[in-house]
Amino acid sequence: MSQSATSRPVYRSPFDLPREEYLAPGHSLCAGCVAGMIVRHLLKVAGPNTIVVTATGCVEVSTTLYPYTSWRIPWIHVAFENAASVASGIEAAIKVLQRKGVIDPNKRINVIALAGDGGTYDIGFQALSGLLERGHKVLYVLYDNEAYMNTGIQRSGGTPLFAWTTTTPVGKVWKGKWQQKKPIAEIVAAHRIPYVATANPAYFIDMVNKFRKGLEVDGPAFIHVIQPCPTGWRFDPRYSIKVAKLATETAMWINWEIENGEFRVTVPVPKRKHVKHYLRMQGRFRHLTDKEIEEIQRFIDREVEYINKRLGKEVIGPLVE
Amino acid sequence: MQGKQLPKWNEIPPGGAILEPGNSVKRPTGDWRTFRPIIDKEKCVRCLLCWVYCPDAAIKIIDEPYRTASGKEWKFSVEVDYTFCKGCGICVEECPVKAIEFVEEVK
Q1: Which domains does chain A have, with CATH numbers?
Q2: What is the pLDDT of residues A271-292, one digit of tens each?
Q3: What value of ipTM does the predicted structure carry?
Q4: Which residues are paired to A316 by β-bridges?
Q5: DSSP, residue by residue, A147-162
Q6: Which residue of A has its CA nearest to B13?
Q7: Helices A83-99 and A125-134 meet at what angle, rounded to 10?
Q8: Do the domain assignments include residue B48?
Q9: Smallest CA–CA separation between B42 and chain A, in Å?
Q10: B27-67 per-position pLDDT tens digit
């Protein structure tokens, strides 16, 4: 089953990416929504022999406005919480049909589960944990826009500290969300699955190669992709990619992967910027005082120290600017 | 679907499945746009970054040779598909040579 898998090329430049589009234009994602770009590249890498399962979320509601669909490949949606369970069932069914000879046993059919942060961090978490434990050969892609953007910007487990949402308002007592973001990729990595990665669409070569690795491994793979949301993060749609790039440059978002137990940072940042550059671009952080920004910076410094200590060398550099 | 009747309940496939893949192309999103990106083919260095970053697949690669005024030969060009471009401006912001202009739509 792995013959066609090993022939997948390593992507080095935009010219290596396939030209076919499996996500048709005409979907109703907001202007400047990076989810469209993430899904486009995911499907380019996966190719036509793919079944996509989506949890309820922005991508699900906006790409399939009945009677239209943007998907040029088989697609299914069941409920909010069970994208991972549906994907496991499809994968098991393919295995049985291949054993019985109904479909060609050498044909490789990719099963991809696609969910937002609400469908992964909070609602779909136990289904995801079950999928990882049973070891189904499914690629689970999480596009993380850090709140329930589809229903109108409610807080989720993925919302970062002090971020404004409609359920964590800003006033005399509340200063946005009180809690930290849940480290979902590390929780998934604790399941000891073959491939876990975090990716950033601004570093698209790194992202598509992670999708490729995730589809190649024999077993579950999990990829956590940051997805700047112009509507919910309150910035001009044209800065979507700039905000994503700043997330990595300020080490708010670290691109790493764990391949068969080996931890690697794939996008080293030799000189890191102050988090204020990232926070000040977004309206959801406009209420922050300098003291609160320093608190976030201290937290990021600790994270960076932890990553560098884990690797035994300095991949994320000191703070300049 | 403008002007057309929606299918009746007994004409809909079981489960509400949509049998025509990618039929959202019948639903142009270009009318969302308030600003129009215009690619200057003379300045463009064909790096494809706009094509990569476009969330709507609204940048097309045209396989036609193009000769710039200074005599440079290109094998292909990129063009904006205005039927689907929502005018977000990511391409304008990400273009490394600032070859994409962003002008207001005036009707």
Answers
A1: 3-311 (3.40.50.970)
A2: 999 999 999 999 999 999 999 9
A3: 0.91
A4: A269
A5: SBTTTT-B--TTPPTT
A6: A67
A7: 30
A8: yes
A9: 20
A10: 899 999 999 999 999 999 999 999 999 999 999 999 999 99
